[in-house]
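Handout for the seminar on molecular recognition.
Each group receives one record of this type.
Step one: identify the two inputs.
Step two: read the structure output and locate the region that could contact zinc ion.
Step three: write two sentences on what you found, then compare them with the reference statements printed after the record.
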Amino acid sequence: MSKEKLYALMDERAKDFEDMSDAVWEFAEVCFNEYKSTALQREYMEREGFRITTPVAGMDTAFIAEYGSGKPILAVLGENDALIGQSQMADVAEEKPAVPGANGHACGHNLLGSGSIEAVCGLKRYMEANGIQGTLRYYACPAEEGGGGKVYLAAAGAFDDVDAAVSWHPYADNGIENCGLACVTVKFSFEGKAAHAAAEPWNGRSALDAVELLCVGTQYLREHVLPTSRIHYAITDTGGGMGNVVPQHAQAQFIIRATTSEYMEELYERVLKICEGAALMTETKFLEPHIVSAYSGFVSNHTMDNIMLDNFRPLIPMQYTPEELAYAEKFKPFGSKPDADTPVEFGLDETIERTAVGSTDVADVSHVTAMSQVRVSCAAIGTVAHGWANTAQGKSALAHRGMHTAAKVMAGSLLDLFTDPELLKKVRDDFDATHHGKKYHTMMPTDRKPSL
Ligand SMILES: [Zn+2]
């Protein structure tokens, strides 16, 4: 077994995936609408000899591409969704939408899906050439940005027979990305009674009062929750915006996060009590809560994380050309590290005990199979995700270099697992030790058709 031979096979086809990623960048399709992006990728993988299953779990833009047979079953996950309103001209170091108001790849998911396919295609060719047994899969996962495609896939049992899975995310640094807060996004609505606010307010009951008391009550709750939790909200319906009408309806969107799914659900129950209290105080009706989405807390698998780091280390520092470094220099002033000594992050952060700040649907996969993910530098140092500078750099040589590196880390890691049953056993033991045979459960209403 030789990583050099695997990587040489991957280098031969590198241009295919640059073109694929650039095409997906141009399509810039959002949540559950990744039709052109996934058609392009499906057709490529079909030509490469993969068996394709689509749709999956009721989602048209989900597909599974499979090669080989029998155990072990190892998988790579990819995403393709863009963000609303994040259009930006490529390579231009100032905020300038390509099409004002259009969508754009400000989170690098054009690289994410294409890089994951690059890993799977390269590894398949190596397995064929060397008679390596097992099943290799790629999962095209829709709507990471708010739609939670992987939650639907996990709930439908799409990962149930998978022994281990890997993924990656483009950032402006290199390391392990094995954390995510459990999270529920929910709409709380109240129904009151409209009345003239001056002529007969005693006949009205204000739904907006209920929302305000819900928000105030939540402020008091904050003192008595674990400091790693987050509760944030926006008032999404103020009841009409007329000061002389007692608002009949009002609504707030709440996002409740915690490090574990169990604690997040406990907090959700406590916020529900505040909702009921607010309704009682205002003599309004608290309507059935509408859960928009729910993600689990990430359960890391340190054995897998270490395998990924072992494969990452020899590829760092990435061999940037002077042109790439000059390109990065142009974007550095717009990131969070404008005074950094270097235009890119050269090192590899080997920390595996990480503190979660956001949430991801990759976490749901970590509840059903051994899961690890890396973050790979695809942009100038300090470049912020979900911003125009990220979109601008999405087709650059810098981005392509990061994508190829990610593909090699993932392909190399899965090759280790395909060829070393003892290592895979350690990964599975680690999974069993953290999950205690618990059945996967989500607050996401997965019986509802996936949508935003
Ligand atoms: Zn993302």
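Reference statements: The chain has a mean pLDDT of 96. The radius of gyration is 24 Å.
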